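Pipeline run #58 for the internal structure catalog. This entry was flagged by the ingest filter as a single-chain record with no existing model, so it goes straight to prediction. Upstream metadata was stripped on purpose; only the residue string is passed forward. Reviewer on rotation: M.T. Logging verbosity set to normal.
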Amino acid sequence: MKKSKSIRSKILIILLPLFFIAMGILSLTGYYNSKKIITNEVKTKMTSQIGVLLENIDKKLSIHGKIVETTRDLLETNGGVLEKDSYKNLLNKILPSNNETSGVGVWYEPYKYNKDTELFSPFAYKENNNIKYTNEYGDSNYTQEEWYKIGKNLNSGLGWSYPYVDNLTNEAMVTAIVPIHSNNGEFTGVVSGDINLSSIQEMISNVKIGNTGYAFLVDDKGVYVATNEKEKIMTKSILQDDNKSIAILAKEMLSNKNGVGQYDNGSKKHSIYYAEVPGTNWIVGLNISEDELYSPLNNLLKNNLITVMVATIIISFIIILFVKKLSESIETVSKLSKTIAEGDLTQKLDIKSEDEIGQMCNSLNVMNDNLKHIISNVSENLEQVVASSEELTATANETKEAAISINKSIKEVSEGNNLQIEANNNVEKECSKLILSIENVYSKVEEATKVSEIAYKSANNGNSVVEQTINQMSSIDNTVSTSSQLVDNLGEKSKEIGDIISVITEISSQTNLLALNAAIESARAGEAGKGFSVVAEEVRKLADETSRAANSISLLISDIQDLILQAVKSMNDGKNAVRGGITLANDAGHAFKEILGNTTGVVSLMNNINDLLKQSVNSTTTMTSSIKETERISHKVNNYTENVVSSSEEQTAFMEEVSKACEDLSKMSVELQNNLSKFKM
């Protein structure tokens, strides 16, 4: 047979994995929550840093743009055209107002400056901290340049060219353009302003994000305007990056303008936070590796794992100690339950705890004491039941023998009564002859005297038999009364046994309820309470066996009580029948006394027959009537005796049944004693 696992192993198998899982879930939850918080904080910081960059770039571009717009406004105030010498003064005054601005120029549409001049383009620029003015670009077809077309296509506002590298200075530049309109709103040219992007490039390259993070700036074609990799500036587009994941992300950046994205750089992942520079289509991006981004989170995860491992070891040790103590208590309870199930009621538990196990131990001790008390009481009462059943058996046998004797005597009375009837018939015949043969009375006196003497003897014998019958009936009545009293006593004893069985049944029910409560408590405790459930099941089985035994005894007692009630009823019926027989026998005795008196009168008349012949005839007639009455009474007595015989036979059969029931009761009592002897107390 396969050995079952101990409750200690079961609890540890359940609790420890659950604890490990719970700690793992707690750690992972904390990790992901921390990651979410750190991600939000990083996003906030990166967004803030991008905002600072955008603000600084926008500030530089806005100041530069204001110079261009101011120049345009001054020109439009004067109708869009100035004297040629006035342009130099205007440009020389405006250009120094912003250090970032490297050149400002006015570029007219063909023949819009005047009808005699096709192209006119005054331009001032900085060179070696000096401002130089030139109009040499008027010989070039600038109207075909991209930046000029941008300004021409603007109705209003400020436009920007693509960043480019100046051929003279070899520095990155960008041009701001605004359109010029005449007083009637006609487009006449553009004002341009070149700004050196070196300060913006320096600002971008100086941005440090952690240890490896950096910033970059690209135009709307993806060309790097500023980055920490100088070889890429103004030469390479992010859309053509060797890393395909960066190129894919670049398309999203140029399309979405604002947001965050990730790409793979070999074995590491990077995040790029990006936003659009206001007024341009340029994109500022912040690039940082996720390893560096989440390094605090990884450190937190390591610390959490160490904490979880230490906590797991400590709590596992505590759980093992607790389960060991709990298992020892349950094992003690299990041993007591096993001894009770085997019938040994001499053991007790000594557990002083006030928890559910302590309560269960106290309940088992109380149940043990109650079982000992019940079994002791049942054993004592069984001895009384056995003694009473034996006494009742003896009484039933005596009653049966007395009934047989009565039956025999009644039969003898019946036979004597039949003889009496026959004699009465003969007397009647003789009396009839006497009346018919009155003349021959003397010759027949002797014969009549003999017949009278025979009648006298028969009547005297009948009277003796009736007296014996009366005496026997009285004896039967006394015996039946005694038997009835014993049966009543047996009924009372059976009721006491029934009460005891009821107590046993009630205690079994309470025990079963205690077992049920223990099972419920064990179910509430879950796997930790399976040991309680086993003990409760054993207690419940013992309670069920006790209840079934008590129910069986109760059914037997109920059957015995029914038989006793039937016996009492039959005895009462027999008692009434016997008393009726006594009454009839007394009546028969009185009748026989009358016969004796009449017979004596006949004898006296026979002695005086000579003197009282006529009186003899009358007396003979009277005697004939008396004989007929005697015959009628004799027939009636005969019927009564037959009824008495039948009742006696029924009484005998009933007493046999009572005797058998008593024997069965005695056997069942002995069997119950044998079962109770299995318990040790």
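catalog note: The radius of gyration is 69 Å.
catalog note: The chain has three domains: 10-196, 203-293, 358-407+423-676.
status: ready for reviewer M.T.
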